[in-house]
Specification:
mainly alpha; 0% strand; globular
Length: 213
């Protein structure tokens, strides 16, 4: 009815995309380890909200601007890289300040709040132009050329991606959350934060170097 096809292949593709480590997964992982299930799910829902934005942007053709305009692509790319560097700086600062054993209990690890963690997930996803280009490139492959309502088909596939991606990230949070009970030596908190800062800085550099397809 919507003019979509090969939905089984689409579901498998979405699973592979979600399971591939990247900025979104690393953010959800670090927020889960620091703030528990609630913090991880808040970040995951922020990422999912970002995917909703990308779906609507791509559906209405605005993502084509990023594919066609070097200036628009560069603005979003550098904004995303700067945001990742800001996250890296925050983790590095926490690592330098860390002195005691790795805090694994919710009461030992102060949470910045669900709204802020959600906003971090949203910003991390929205400020990644590769995600917009990916949606623009992937979804049309599963829409028939003679589909009666291409916009509706696009939104349907985008909604599928968001629902399946959210389920994956929530399952990922529940899987890694028990690791918070691990009691580590005093240097583990510092190493975790400094290592995370290095990872986000590397992701920022990789995003800054990406070119339009």
């Amino acid at each position: 009815m919507l003019g979509t096809h090969s939905l089984g292949v689409f579901a498998a593709t979405v699973l592979v995309v979600n399971a591939t480590p990247g900025v979104d997964m690393m953010l959800v992982l670090t927020r889960t380890m620091r703030h528990g299930v609630v913090g991880g799910i808040a970040a995951a829902l922020g990422v999912s909200a970002g995917c909703v934005v990308h779906t609507l942007v791509a559906a209405f053709g605005l993502a084509a601007l990023l594919a066609a305009s070097a200036a628009a692509f560069a603005v979003v790319k550098w904004a995303g890289a700067a945001y990742l560097l800001w996250l890296a700086f925050g983790m590095l600062r926490d690592g330098v300040r860390a002195r005691g054993p790795l805090a694994v209990d919710a009461e030992r690890t102060a949470s910045p709040g669900v709204a802020r963690l959600f906003a971090q997930g949203l910003a991390t996803n929205v400020l990644n132009p590769k995600v917009a280009i990916f949606f623009l490139a992937l979804l049309p492959q599963f829409i028939d050329a003679d589909a009666p309502a291409k916009l509706l088909a696009f939104v349907f596939l985008g909604a599928w991606f968001v629902v399946q991606g959210t389920a994956f990230l929530v399952a990922f949070v529940l899987l890694v959350a028990p690791l918070r009970r691990w009691r580590a030596p005093s240097g583990a908190a510092r190493a975790l934060n400094v290592g995370g800062a290095g990872l986000f800085a590397w992701l920022a550099a990789r995003l800054a170097l990406v070119e339009r397809a």
